[in-house]
Amino acid sequence: MMKASLYTLGCRLNQAETGIIAKTLVDRGYEIVEWGEHTDLAVVNTCTVTEKADSKCRNAVRKAIRTNPDAFVAVVGCYSQMAAKLISEIDGVDLVLGNAEKLRLADHINGLQKLDTPRIVCSRLVTRDDFTIESESTHENHTRANLKIQDGCDFICSFCIIPRARGRSRSRKFSDLMREANQLADKGFREIVLTGVNIGTYESDGHDFLSMITELEKIDGIERIRISSIELTTIRRELVRHMAESEKLCRHLHIPLQSGDDTILDKMSRRHSAQEYTDFVEYCVKTVPEIGIGTDILIGFPGETDEQFRNTKKFLADLPIEYFHVFAYSDRDNTPASRMPDKIDPDTKKLRSHIMIEMGKRKRYAFCERYIGKPVDVLFESIEDGLWTGFTDNYMRVQAECDKHIRNQMLTVVPERIEGDTLIGKLV
Ligand code: SF4
User: Fold this and answer.
1) Domain shared by 349 and 313, yes or no
2) Does 130 fall in a domain?
3) Ligand 1 test: best mutation among 166, 197, 254, 298, most atoms within 8 Å of CB?
4) How confident is the model at residue 140 (pLDDT cuts 50, 70, 90)?
5) What CATH number does residue 309 fall under?
6) What is the pTM of this model?
């Protein structure tokens, strides 16, 4: 049996797509082995959201070649879409596939014949049509299943490469995503995570984002539906009211902010002001009391002054949110921001990122602290540091001791203390 090994960089959508690629290989008789083990086929599913992501991709590709010099090496996804030639010049790469081709990798591997000249198949992403996915994802070792519902983006934020790497916004055909969601329920998955690039713009066969969710809620066996990252201007207040009533829709929203300063938001071509963000977050907290809200912050945007950074810091300090992910700005080819003057030096970016990361930890701690002694429901996923680990619906990480196998079980825990970003407690 031929062996295949896959490595994913970047977002949840990439993870979902790697799962689909793996399934197509399993259907062709491949055995999927752990990354780093001996393999006949090594696949790197890449990301290009920052300069750092690009270099991580190159390192992963080189490591794959060093570890399995005889393996057929395929590099696919966003970085391949943007830098196919550069990647093909890495000695040992056999195939470079763009985002339109990557899910059909199994049709391109040509019996794993290593080639003198790497093959590049990377077409421009122009379609806006609804799409279907022939296969479904394998979700190896996953309790939460990523369900791809949308791809591409029309928002064109000035710093962002994604619209060029993934094309214009398009939705998955409603019947097709329902087919996979039912298959996931049949396989025993209790939580599905809705993934895409700009998922709030979902629209297919008369269903918008909210009506699609209400249909998913009707599937027996699916107990939780989690919304992954979603843009502020695409969330209707009706969805928040529905979240307050719903048994299944997780009380969790990850809403990218990027900056808390209006001048910077403007230069980023973001579609909302800082005040609009605050108003919406406050509406959510009032309407869904236990809601967990997370965000993304982009530090060091061209021209970001000390004062503008302080505005972002103050803005987040006052906001009732649970956590944030911090990214340092880096030029992306041909984006409007890459042509802007007054780039921020690396040390300043590093210092500002560090300050925000530390603040994020305090935010998370303060949010979790409210649950000490208060029973919470946890969907257990895996054993980490000897303890069973899982998440609440409002996205708190929880650990508890148990000598039974409780993977994929929803159980109640009474938290007793916090360690790092995790609540530690006793199973009820
Ligand atoms: S909304 Fe903006 S940041 Fe998000 S993918 Fe689209 S262009 Fe990029």
Assistant:
1) yes
2) no
3) 197
4) low
5) 3.30.750.200
6) 0.94
Output the pLDDT for position 336. 97
Ligand 1 atom 2 nearest Cα = 157
Q: How far is the CA of 217 from the centre of ligand 1 (A)?
A: 28
> Which atom of ligand 1 lies at the shortest distance from residue 163's CA?
7
- Residue 151's pLDDT band, with cuts at 50, 70 and 90, is very high
Q: What percent of the chain has pLDDT over 90?
A: 93
Interval between CA 222 and ligand 1 midpoint (Å):
29
Note whether 185 and 216 are same-domain residues. Answer: yes
Considering the domain architecture, whether residues 207 and 160 belong to the same structural domain is answered as yes
Q: In what order do the strands lie in the sheet with 191-195?
A: 144-148, 191-195, 224-227
Range of the domain at 63: 3-121
What is the pairing mode between strands 323-328 and 292-299?
parallel
| Ligand 1 atom closest to residue 161's alpha carbon, by position in its atom list | 8
Distance 154 CA to ligand 1 centre (A): 8
Structural domain count, the chain: 4
In ligand 1, the atom with minimum distance to the C-alpha of 166 is 5
**Domain identity same for 209 and 308:** no
The CATH number covering residue 381 comes to 2.40.50
Give the Å distance between the CA of 113 and the centre of ligand 1: 38
For residue 169, how many C-alpha atoms fall within 13 Å in the half-sphere facing its CB? 13
Handedness of CA 403, 404, 407, 412 (dihedral sign): negative
Burial 197-229 (b: 16+ CB within 10 A, else e): bbbbbbbbeebbbbebbeebeebeebbbbbbbb
Q: How far is the CA of 155 from the centre of ligand 1 (A)?
A: 6
Rounded to whole angstroms, the Cα distance separating 69 from 21 reads 22
Q: Is 419 part of a structural domain of the chain?
A: yes
pLDDT in tens, 229-268: 999 999 999 999 999 999 999 999 999 999 999 999 999 9
Alpha carbons 20 and 103: distance in angstroms, whole number: 7
Residues flanking ligand 1, CB < 6 Å: 153, 155-157, 160, 162-163, 197-198, 231
The answer to whether position 69 is within a domain reads yes
C-alpha 231 – ligand 1 centre gap (Å): 8
In degrees, rounded to 5, the angle at the alpha carbon of residue 156 between the alpha carbons of residues 136 and 285 is 75
The answer on 417 and 361 residing in a single domain is: no
Q: Based on the domain organization, do 169 and 108 belong to the same domain? A: no
